[in-house]
Specification:
Helices cover about 15% and strands about 40% of the residues. It is an alpha+beta fold. Strands 3, 7, 8, 11, 13 and 14 form a six-stranded mixed beta sheet that branches. The protein has a six-stranded antiparallel beta barrel with strand order 15-16-17-18-19-20. Strands 2-1-4-12 form a four-stranded antiparallel beta sheet.
Amino acid sequence: MRHGWFGTTILLCSSCLALCHLTKAQGPSQDPAQFTAVFEEMPNGRQRAIPASGFAEVDDQSSIAVRFDGGKMMPPKMMPSNEPVVMVEILITGFVRRGATSSPITAIPHYIDPPLSAGANADHKEVGKVQTHSKAYDPPASSVPGTIVDLPGIGVTGADEVVLHIINLSNQQTFEVHLYPRSFGFRTKTSDSFFLLRRLGVHSAETALGFDPSNFSPAPGVSYGGVYFARDNRTARFLQPGIGANVSFMSWKDPAKSNTTGQPATGTSTSSVQVGTGVVISFFSNVLQFTYGANLNVDKHRAYWGLGFSFVNLAQRIKGSQ
């Protein structure tokens, strides 16, 4: 019985401690991580919560909403002198990182004013200076307003990371939000192309007359189309498929038509440069490309298919993996 009573007592004490810890964690706090909620407001109108860890990939066309729960903020503390001391005073700053270069975010509503431009009414001492503002939690006199960070507005194209610092100036506790801009969805782009083309329909008898079989002959060109970068689907995210149109330049050596007979004349040749166009399907953000199209400058057997790639996109992919 003693052991049973002792074990029960220990269990009850442990439960009480856990309950006290939980109550304390859920009570008013000075830690911005406890009362800050961050959301991604996507281009399609949907909203997505940023994890409590503060790390997330976001669409580079989205806006980031920062909101505060006043019910979880610690109110001002009364000192023995009966003077209130603010326990939560929030400042939001941030920067955009590209490689080894970082640039500060110079416009966050309520917290950072855009730099003043030179003008007739501008104070020259303030031109180009960034003004920051902190917001104190002192109910009912004042609350802490939320804010919106417009990612296209701060120029995140090609950025590696966007970092927001949500700082409680009363004790310097900081909640950091790390955002990684991505071009999610179907985005159009232009890419160089280099195809190895296989001509269709040329038989041995026609080859003997001088028709070029184009057995995977090289053809440089350019492709334009869309690439789909998925947010959640891992397979689609890996493949990064795309579809579009391609223009390629080729040099099939076909015999020219005889003016008298209208038939291909052996020993003659058509124009040395032709233009072909067709549909292109790509993978890995236009690195690997497949095409099916037609040579616009030959009289017969125009169709071809080809396998190719983009030198520029391949180089960017190799650079990004280093």
